[in-house]
Amino acid sequence: MEPRIDYRSLAPEAAEALRGLNAYVRRSGLLEPSLVRLVEVRASQINGCAFCLDMHTQEARLAGEGEQRLYALAAWREAPFYTPRERAALAWTEAVTRLEDGHVPDQVYQEARRHFSERELVDLTLAVVAINGWNRLNVAFRTPAGTWRPPQDGAAPS
Question: Is the pLDDT score of 155 beyond 70?
């Protein structure tokens, strides 16, 4: 598959704005970085974004996430490797990403509220919004998987 458009070079301010949303979620400190990474990978699986899957699984591994949890993420409901809070976040991610029915089910919201404060749930939703935005840009413009490289400073992603 050939890349279509390099949106980052054509609209750097827009890419920076989306990076700013990611930075806000990380700076707020309300959500565990490992949870945000699971959300990013799960939404990218749903959206079929190979570039984001490659990037975020690499980031997760660099930050210490285990292969077993990454491999089983698509089947998280059947896998025993996730905490109740992570399960609530993954269900929320799926519901917010898949709006086919035009709503997020009350049951999913109620479970998320059992594990997240109102502010945390706003931040979680913003994390889902951000990764869905990146997924749509990278899928639409066919950003090639395998081109992302970790930062050269050697620091693990937060």
Answer: no
